[in-house]
Amino acid sequence: MTLFDSVLALLIAILAWRSVTAPDLYRGIVLFITLGLMLALSWARLDAPDLALAEAAIGAGLLGILLLSTWRVLQRAAPRQGSDEPASYAVRWLAVVGSTVFGGTVAVALYGLQVGSDRAGAEALASLDLAGIDQPVTAVLLNFRSYDTLLEMGVLLMALIGALLIRSPLAYEPWHGDTAVESPLMSVLAKVFTPIVVLVGIFLVWAGAYGPGGAFQGGAVLAGAGVLLLLCRRLYGDADATLLLRGLLVLGVTAFIVIGLLLMPWQGAFLAYPPGLVYVLLVVIEFSLAVSIALSLLLLFTGTHAVRAVRS
Amino acid sequence: MSSIPDPFGLAAAALLAVGFYGFVTHRHPLRRLLAINIFGNGVFMTLILVARWMPGGPDPIPHAMVLTGIVIAVSATAFGLALVRRSMTQEDGDRREPDDD
Question: How many structural domains comprise chain B?
Answer without folding.
Answer: 1
